[in-house]
Amino acid sequence: MHFTSAQRIDDGVLEREFTLGEIPGTLWTPESAAPGEPGPAAPAPLILMAHNNGLPKRDARLMARARHTAAHGYAVATIDAAGCGDRPRSAAEEQARTDLRRAMQAGEPVDEIFESMIGPLVEKAVPDWRTTLDALLALPEIGGPVGYSGWTALGIRLAATEPRIAAAGLFAGGYVPRAQREEARQVTVPLLFLLQWDDEGNPRQRALDLFDAFGSRQRTLHANLGGHTGTPWFEVEDGGRFFTRHLK
After folding, report:
1. What is the percent of the chain with per-residue pLDDT over 90, rounded to a whole number?
2. 56 and 86 in contact (C-beta within 8 Å)?
3. Are β-strands 44-50 and 23-29 bridged in parallel, bridged antiparallel, or unpaired?
4. Global pTM?
């Protein structure tokens, strides 16, 4: 892991850009865990934060959540995994995105296009996130346990197959492929599931069915009125309390 930049931001949080092979990422660490601080550093629990469906790691909403979370004592990391953000996409991926835009403009069904786009994206993203997790847990300022926050389809795969994930906060605002809906039954870690009741791109009943499918005995559903981007800020604070219960 090679750090390429570092800056202090609000509340003493250290924000560092890094590269790990072809993987670009950002790491936020709280003042208590920042390297080079006087006195012994307290290793911070880690939260992996991913935006829905492969949007870039520099997305403003993700960065605001990450900085707020780090200020409350967590190390937070996000990456542009394969096919996400500015990473190169295959011809098939570009075609799927073109087909999706055309279908949405024409008001045509889009589920099968999402299946062809999101399923492979999850398959390619998971190895990059695991590689990043290995490197992050080797840093002295990060001690675990590990939480996950964000993109549901990716979070299901990681929570089902990665034993280091101890809790997950998932946003029910992105398409979840059928394979991950089945895989949800294997997820047993504590869950916080956020649902926008009027999400124009995510049928409410599909999200409720997914919540029922999880194997976790500790799972909580928070539903708020409003569309896809209307999640209230207090859900970030409630998410912090959820992770405090399970990671600290």
Report:
1. 63
2. yes
3. unpaired
4. 0.91
